[in-house]
Design brief:
six-stranded mixed β-sheet, 2 domains, Cytochrome Bc1 Complex, Chain A, domain 1
Length: 362
């Protein structure tokens, strides 16, 4: 065991390049003394590749859950490989969709306790996904998710220009936010190394691209990769259902969810109370001219929130009247047989094309 291997290392903190190389040399020397250890050449590295879903597919796979009575579903719409342009486009789209998704499916329809829309990335390939944990049957949940996805185009296309620009600027600020602490910064470095992409200034590079994206870019992306009416859409849904074993447990899931909602409401009220007290204390110490500018900024933010709220109400009204004819689901019975019929994406490439040398040969 471990007679052949290679090491990726990250040395981060209060040290310089020369010290880091010395530490790595010490590690290498320990293994050089063991004659049965040999380096693993780059051609022998185990590099995983992502499967290519065919255009127009509507796959679904079901699993059983022995721990909880709740159902869960993840709808994954595979899009494209990772590049700076693709990353920026997909992330901005998810930022626009995230709030209305939570508001519609979680707050208004109350499909489940966990609802989110974000990106899914794996081995250099990425796509858009929606995850819902619910006590309802997944056929119904899937239908409601698809109805929401069908409403996204109208939400983006009718959004006022001012709101679109504010949302785009807000995401750029969020993306360029400095990590809070060495641990978070180290995680970003480590992700680049383990993915073998080595792009350590990714936020800055992608933020410059986000600045150039317009409404039509998001609409073209939606029409091709996300819309239920697109013949190019590639969908894979994972259904998680409670097993017969867990259904026999005498747990009142309804009361459990109600208690969680009550606890969330109490925490929210408490946070509002604390925020009001802190705001009152701060305002007392702020000069009048600064306070006046803050009030103007607050009023502007309130106007934007009102615009978003009106758009969300419009989405809710439209969804209540809609019915959607979805393509027939192709259920996956044998996962290994299904994988064997699909092609693979090429290996994820490094952005900086860093060559990893063989440090020593035995």
């Amino acid at each position: 065991m471990l007679n052949r291997f290679y090491t990726d290392s990250l040395m981060y903190g209060n040290l310089i390049k020369h010290q880091a190389l010395e530490y790595m040399t010490l590690v290498e020397q320990k293994f050089q003394k063991k004659h049965f250890y040999q380096p693993l050449f780059p051609s022998m590295w185990f590099n995983q590749r992502e499967l290519i879903l065919p255009e127009g597919c509507n796959y679904a796979y079901t699993m059983l859950n022995d721990a909880h009575k709740l159902h869960a579903i993840e709808i994954y719409l595979q899009c494209f490989q990772q590049t700076f342009e693709n990353n920026a486009l997909l992330e901005l789209f998810c930022y626009f969709v995230g709030e209305p998704c939570f508001d519609q499916l979680r707050t208004k329809e109350q499909l489940g306790y966990i609802v989110r829309a974000d990106t899914r990335r794996s081995h250099g390939v990425q796509g858009f996904r929606i995850i819902v944990q619910s006590a309802r049957e997944l056929d119904y949940v899937n239908q409601r998710i698809e109805l929401f996805i069908d409403s996204i185009r109208e939400y983006i296309s009718t959004m006022p220009d001012e709101l679109f620009k504010k949302q785009r600027e807000g995401y750029m600020i969020k993306k360029l936010e400095v990590p809070k602490g060495m641990k978070n910064q180290g995680k970003k470095f480590c992700n680049e190394i383990t993915n073998h992409q080595f792009c350590f200034d990714r936020p800055q590079l992608e933020a410059e691209i986000i600045k150039t994206l317009e409404r039509n870019d998001l609409l073209r992306f939606y029409d091709h990769y996300v819309s239920p009416h697109s013949i190019y859409r590639r969908k894979l849904a994972l259904h998680v259902n409670p097993s017969s074993l867990v259904l026999q447990k005498p747990i009142d899931e309804k009361n459990t969810n109600e208690n969680k909602d009550q606890l969330d409401a109490m925490k929210y009220k408490k946070s509002l109370s604390n925020t009001y007290k802190e705001r009152t204390q701060i305002e007392a110490t702020v000069p009048a001219d600064v306070n006046h500018e803050a009030i103007k900024l607050t009023e502007q933010l309130v106007m934007i929130d009102n615009l978003i709220e009106s758009k969300l109400k419009q989405i809710e009204q439209n969804l209540s009247k809609k019915e959607l004819n979805l393509p027939k689901i192709e259920w996956i019975d044998n996962i290994h047989m299904w994988k064997s019929k699909l092609s693979c994406y090429p290996l994820a490439q490094s952005y900086d094309k860093i060559e990893v040398p063989i440090l020593y040969q035995l």
